[in-house]
Amino acid sequence: MDLSRPLMTVTPTLDGDVLAVLANHDGIFTTGQLHRLLARHSEEGIRKVLRRLTKQGVVLSDRVGNAFAYRLNREHLAAEHIIGLARIQKTLLERIEDRLESWELPPVYAAVFGSAARGGMTEDSDVDLLLIRPDDADDDQWETQVHELAVEVTRWTGNDTRPLEFTEAELADRGYAEAVLRDVARDGLTVAGSRTWLTGHLRKGKG
């Protein structure tokens, strides 16, 4: 799955990219505005897609001066499903959060990072997951939880899941010497704990 182009799960065409933009915003867009957001596609291609989607009724067009502006028809029967697909990344993060909250040994901090967080994911990318483990966690119980979560995330997305684990003590020792932790602090999507806690510990490690 490509979380940055979520409707590719059902359609690899430009239609999915256009619908994803319209579904994630309540405002209206001209063809030119959509082209600036979807620069990989031609403006003429976007215009053709909008005409087709307008005929289907899933997109509404409004005349604004000499141009037309477009928005998702949120009352259309297909709209709730389009919106659900467009918000797949949010749904994934919420599912991971729910699983981590249910753990008997919850992580001190956890975040999705890498391409899944930066918006550069493809169907071949891994889902990278940072897990900061309590120093006193039971090894077997912790490893079972992590394995089960990795299996679930892969089943949800179709992508391999790669947990990266540190104990609290290891995090303090590594600090900003670890490039991956700097990446998580900058771009990671927190799913357990507080980013402030993470950056505070990294500063301690740097000192």
From TrEMBL:
Where would I find the Polymerase nucleotidyl transferase domain in this sequence?
96-148
Q: Which Pfam families match?
A: NTP_transf_2
The record's GO molecular-function terms, alphabetically, read: nucleotidyltransferase activity
Instruction: Please give the CDD domains that the UniProt record associates with this protein.
Output: NT_KNTase_like
Name under which the protein is recorded: Polymerase nucleotidyl transferase domain-containing protein
**What is the source species?**
Amycolatopsis orientalis (Nocardia orientalis)
